[in-house]
Write a structure and sequence with these properties.
alpha/beta, five-stranded antiparallel β-sheet, eight-stranded mixed β-sheet
Length: about 500
């Protein structure tokens, strides 16, 4: 398959493709018609198949439908609607955006920024789509694109450097959607509840594109809300949802208050991705909902999924992210591209149809990260004899305490065994003599208390002394990035320890 539009045409015409938790839905037949209208409207506006169209909309069915309808025709770039004017200016300039699409009912500083930068802007109406706007006198019909055409551009998080632009082709998106749908064994009878932001690869690929690949349906929420999750679960009766670990922890934290909803759930599985899921949370979710939790390993550069634990009857290994689930996966020496035997720790490297060909306008990063057809992920991992991968850390997140290397995940997992602790984030704290020390943010369970000394004593009984946190900070929540992921790098500065 070489065209995303053909993907939508495979499904039964009247089946629901995209729906809202607030009511209303779009069928596959309507999605195809909407996509054709968008293609005509973009062509009439002078947008070519290589032009870049930014989208700034709040989470919900409109951005899902707009993304799905525009991605066959141009390079779509969804941006975080919570950005400030300065951030919008940076990203729009970096993208060299030719057009900006916004929600007709949404007020955002991006509109003033686009006007100042001279970027044409179109307000998208939930009923009329792009067809309700005039683009000039010239009428041009949409053109089919080849599979190598860029369909999506996303920026990396930029926690350690300037964000990099990742171009993903139609081939990348279709390969990834196929990989996810096949891993999860999605069918036309499945219904996904999307709580992920739709300016991030996780939300765009798993709940949206994999759903459309399978001909099933997705119900879009306005964004994650732990207080509303169980009501949504009751109202929409999904067979699965996908989220990041911090969301799963929040859902689990409110389970006892929502036992009736829990007992009525129809979840076939729960999926977790974008960060390592603590074993305690995985076990808690499975015990609570009575279903399998599938942990996957993913990156923007791979159009999301790289590895995934499988569904029954195949073996699931808690603590691992499963075997390769689409691309080829190997463990390499961290200095040279030399593959290591099973059981040895090294850098995780991948290659496959879902993997980007390289960053935009970044030859230095391309030379470093793309070697002999392989993409170097920057993640450390170990592959066992069965091909299951355990992610042990991120090269840039490893804490170097006077030459001793400490993986934050190891400290997280130990501290989470304490009965008073609900969430943990271990990170590096700058130190004038050792270079770095170990810091930990703790979120306590409701009604529980513990002192810093008790935390350190608990850790000292289970960890080597150099791994015990010297800085312990209690917070009501762990600071997160815009996609809900915890960003360890720079955490000490963000919470005022330096």
């Amino acid at each position: 398959m070489t065209d995303i539009l053909q993907l939508y045409e495979r499904a039964p015409n009247h089946a629901t493709a995209i729906a809202s938790v607030e009511g209303g839905s779009t069928s596959y037949e309507e999605l195809v018609a909407y996509a054709e209208i968008c293609g005509d409207s973009l062509a009439a506006s002078g947008i070519s198949d290589e032009d870049r169209v930014a989208i700034v909309m709040p989470n919900g069915p409109l951005i899902a439908t707009t993304f799905a309808s525009c991605v066959p025709w141009c390079a779509v770039a969804p941006l975080n609607p919570a950005y400030t004017a300065d951030e919008f200016e940076y990203y729009l300039k970096d993208l060299k955006a030719n057009l900006l699409l916004v929600d007709a009912t949404f007020d955002s500083p991006v509109m003033h920024v686009a006007e100042r930068l001279g970027i044409e802007m179109v307000a998208v109406d939930a009923n009329q789509g792009l067809s309700g706007f005039e683009f000039g006198s010239e009428s041009r019909k949409r053109r089919q694109r080849n599979s190598a055409s860029t369909a999506l551009i996303l920026h990396t998080s930029g926690t350690t450097s300037t964000p990099k632009m990742v171009p993903l082709s139609q081939r990348n998106l279709l390969a990834s959607a196929k990989n996810i749908a096949e891993t999860l064994e999605l069918t036309v009878d499945d219904h996904c509840l999307n709580v992920m932001p739709l300016f991030h690869i996780h939300g765009l690929m798993a709940p949206i594109m994999a759903t459309l690949y399978a001909g099933s349906s997705v119900v879009c929420t306005p964004g994650f809300d732990a207080l509303k999750f169980y009501a949504w679960l009751d109202e929409t009766r999904p067979t699965w949802y996908s989220a990041v670990p911090t969301m799963h922890q929040a859902i689990l934290g409110r389970a006892k208050r929502n036992q009736a909803s829990v007992s009525r759930n129809q979840l076939r599985f729960i999926r977790s991705s974008s960060a390592s899921l603590p074993i305690q949370v995985l076990n808690g979710l499975e015990e609570t909902f009575g279903t399998r939790v599938i942990e996957a390993y993913a990156m923007t550069e791979a159009a999301h999924q790289m590895c995934s634990n499988p569904l029954p009857p195949r073996a699931r290994k808690p603590g691992t992210v499963g075997p390769a689930a689409g691309p080829e996966v190997q463990i390499s020496d961290t200095s040279n591209l030399e593959f290591l035997e099973s059981g040895r720790e090294g850098e995780i490297v991948i290659r496959g149809e879902n993997v980007t060909a390289g960053y935009i306008n970044n030859p230095d990063a391309n030379a470093k990260d793309f070697v002999d057809g392989w993409f170097r992920t920057g993640d450390l991992g170990i592959m066992d004899k069965d091909g299951y991968v355990r992610v042990t850390g991120r090269l840039k997140e490893i804490i170097n305490r006077g030459g001793e290397k400490i993986a934050p995940l190891e400290v997280d997992e130990v501290l989470l065994d304490h009965p008073a602790i609900e969430q943990v984030c271990t990170f590096a704290v700058p130190h004038d003599k050792l270079g770095e020390e170990v810091g930990a943010i703790l979120v306590l369970k409701e009604g529980k208390s513990i002192t810093k000394d008790e935390v350190k004593r608990f850790a000292r009984e289970r960890l080597a002394s150099f791994k015990v946190p010297s800085e312990v900070v209690f917070l009501p929540d762990i600071p997160k990035g815009p996609t809900g992921k915890v960003q360890r790098i720079g955490m000490a500065q963000r919470i005022g320890l330096v």
